[in-house]
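Researcher: Checking consistency across runs. Here is Transport permease protein again:
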Amino acid sequence: MSPDGRALLAVARKELRVLRRYPLTLLNTMLFMPLYQLVLPVLLLGTAFLVKGRSLGMDELTGTSDFGGWLSAGLVGATVTGTVLSGPAQAMASERGLGTLEQTWAMPVSRRALVLGLMTCMTGLSLLAGVTMAVLVSLLAGAHYGPGTVLVLPVFAALVPGLAGMGLLSASLSLLWRQAVGLTDNLGYVVTVLAGVTFPVAVLWDALRPVSYLIPTTWAIDLSRRAALGADSLYPPAVEACALLATSGLFLAGGSALFGRMERRMRAEGALGQH
């Protein structure tokens, strides 16, 4: 295995070991906060407008009245995307506070590998948290998934490059502003809104809808809902699959390029080792 590959796995194991030392913090961040900040308010509000157990407006816009299942599919994408966007900045700020950031970055490996190692751990944990929340919502709201649910796996596999690009974007912002945790957290909230996690993308204002189409999470969530619930999709599945692959690649290329530029800038200014 290459040095970068070994560094990636080492960072992932280190982050997992650190998170295991604080299980309550991990549960609060990955599960409890999304539950009381997003899931329960949206679920209770949606339930209040059900007519004889059916969401008629949802049925008209999306082709399914299964509000719980529809929301669950969005929650998985929102949890993964929000964690990946905020995670690298939070981890870099934590290492800076502990005084270990310089030693970590002094290793003779690509710093992209260090960021991606962190993301490997966070993506796995956030997927687990997202699926757990989806199961809880399904139990509470009585969601019903079809046999096509297994197709969600390749959909989220295609989202992984886009998530890697988002993580590199988060790390780039942390290099640029140092204290970027608040900014990356807000970016996660914006993506949650634009990706149609809690409402159909079709109701977005016309000016915002094209921005939503540039986010790979939008296509991943829409394809997941079609596969698991038989819901209507924004466009034909083949078109959405191509859009997902294209936007994921675009985010990966853009995030990697921005991170490289920020790294070169910090090195030229002599500030990288004192970040």
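Researcher: Does this match what you'd expect to see?
Model: One thing to look at in this run: The radius of gyration is 19 Å.
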